[in-house]
Give the backbone structure.
Amino acid sequence: MNEVLARVPIDPSTMAETPAALDASPESDPDRLRWFPKGTHITIRGLTKTFDDVVLYKDFDLDIPKGKVVSVFGPNGCGKSTLINMISGILEFDSGQILFDGKTARETRIGYVFQNYREAVFPWSRAIDNIRYPLQFLGLSKAERDARVEELLTSFDVKIDLNRYPYELSGGQQQLVSIMRALVVDPEVLFLDEPFSALDYEMTLFLRDRLQKVLTEREVTTLLVSHDLDEAVTLADEILLLTKKPTQVAERLQFNASRPRTPETTLTDEFIAVKSRSLEIFQREVRK
Ligand SMILES: Nc1ncnc2c1ncn2[C@@H]1O[C@H](COP(=O)(O)OP(=O)(O)O)[C@@H](O)[C@H]1O
Ligand SMILES: [Mg+2]
């Protein structure tokens, strides 16, 4: 649990040096929620969400570190998708506050990759136009837009014909398009909800590899939901383990293996130790 962040006065010396943090002291600031520790990107305070009288989150606090990949893992139906949907601004919540370096989701560049790529890519647009699509909202010149796309295509080393329409592409290729569309805006924060669960192993390895490369180069704060524990650990700097609902953080585990992580990473002692611990916590929570 993030004890440091519990509802106690916070030591100002550990505060991030943002205008929000410098302008007030924790005692005088009625909006204590704008205070957050250094290195934090996303701060969630007092989050409450209920569906049809079922309390999913109640007074939920969480801090997500800046520029790291955090894997979200937990029991089926505990609210992993709901959590990232609330953080990304797709889904409303009942009460609480979510801020990105003190900013709202609307003031933050966000990328989102859905599990179901078939519903996420635009069937009427060629692959390249799908990828370019979000750039029109950023007020960039044509040269800048072209440079963004070019840079991304180079990073992903794309071999497919991007003039094709989604129906002419395999599922993996459609998800590749969807991932590039999320990255083209150069997001500060990227959300991925089980992005590889419907893909074959070869495509999964390819996409994980390219995605990791871009995320580490650009230091994108990333929240990845995965039901595959090997994948969750392999890609993560931190594994966020959730309880059953009403959902709380069961534990946060660090995984510091060097990058790029590959299938061989799963054979290392460090990986096995983190995975075993994750599994132990997961099983404890499921049995509760
Ligand atoms: N729009 C909704 N209306 C009612 N209940 C919902 C809705 N979305 C999710 N839920 C419920 O909230 C819980 C968490 O859902 P979800 O976040 O999709 O779980 P996870 O992604 O962890 O499997 C589930 O019990 C689900 O049935
Ligand atoms: Mg889900």
User: Anything to note?
Assistant: The first strand starts at residue 40 and ends at 51. Residues 1-27 have pLDDT under 50 and may be disordered.
